[in-house]
Structures are given as structure tokens and as C-alpha cells.
Amino acid sequence: MKPLKILFVCIGNTCRSPMAESVMKHWVKEYDLNWEVDSAGLRLWNVGRKPDERCIKVLEENGLATDHIGRQISPIDFYKYDYILAMDEHNMSELQELAGDPSHQRCAKIELLGKYIERKEDQIIRDPYFSISIGGFRCAFLQITESCQNFIAEHMYAD
Q: Pfam families, per this entry (predicted)?
């Protein structure tokens, strides 16, 4: 069976999407799933850079690590991945615009990652980059973890 391919996307690929990539990779390994996971940003700002130090710290607090280096989403990603998961409505809107005509034969299904959170009011994973404290990163981590676990539960046995 071919691997399920998932791409997480946020604005800069320095906070939320690399965090989601790390969390999902952890669970994919834990469940021994044949899935490929990556992340990208909509902007060039952090291409070639490591994630934000606060992102790395929150991952470490939870026993996770990342070796991610920032990259920008490319047109081929819409054909390479099965799912492109956005962190908020602005990311989602921009991804839909970049993807173009939905009747084309692109592979990727574009969704909000937060769609997999049960509480509707928690479904937008806010950008913690401008947070004064690390609390915004911890909140994003909790939302991302729940989303990833529920995504796995829904797609683990799907063909």
C-alpha cells in the first residue's frame, strides 16, 4: 500500500507547522504507520532556518524533537501530498487560491487541521509567534496534539 502523505502549512513554517510535523511524526512512528509527513510555509521568511526557539522548547518539554529546516510550499506539493492541513482560515484561503481550480486532478485534499478538534471554539490554531510568553506555544501544542491523534484515528485504517 502506498504511504499516506501529509503536509502541514502555516504562514512562516517556524511555529505551528513544524510543531505539527514533529507531533505527527511521533505518532506515526508510535503506531508504525506507513505515512510521510512534512511541513512548509506560505512565505519565504524562514526558508533554511530552524523552527522558533519557543517551538523547540515546547516540543522538548513534551519529549519531542525536530530537525526541520524551513521551506516554502511549492506547486508540486498540491500533487505530491494526499492532505495539506492548514492552521487557520487565512492559511486555508491562501492554499485554496494557490491550488487553483478544484476540478483539476490535483491529489491533495486541503483542510483545516483544527477540523479534527472536537470543540468547535478550539478549531483555529492561532499563531503563537507574537505571544509575549511561551503559553501560546503550549496552547498550540495541545490543539495540534489532539488534532493529530484524531486525524490518525480517522485515517489509520482508510485505504
A: LMWPc
Identify whether the C-beta of residue 152 lies closer than 8 Å to the C-beta of residue 4.
Answer: no
- DSSP-H helix ranges across 62-117: 77-80, 89-99
Q: Is 71 a catalytic residue?
A: no
Please state, in angstroms and rounded to a whole number, the distance separating the CA atoms of residues 156 and 28. 10
**Average pLDDT across the chain, whole number:** 94
Q: Which of 15, 16, 54, 106 is catalytic?
A: 16
Residue 65: Cβ within 10 Å count: 12
Instruction: Please give the full DSSP string across 34-72, using - where no structure is assigned.
Output: -EEEEEEESSSTTTT-PPPHHHHHHHHHTT--------B
Largest distance between two CA atoms of the chain: 45
Catalytic residue among 10, 15, 55, 148: 10
Instruction: Write down the pLDDT at residue 142.
Output: 98
> Tell me, which fold does domain 4-155 have in CATH?
Rossmann fold (3.40.50)
Is the pTM higher than 0.70? The answer reads: yes
At residue 35, does pLDDT exceed 90?
A: yes
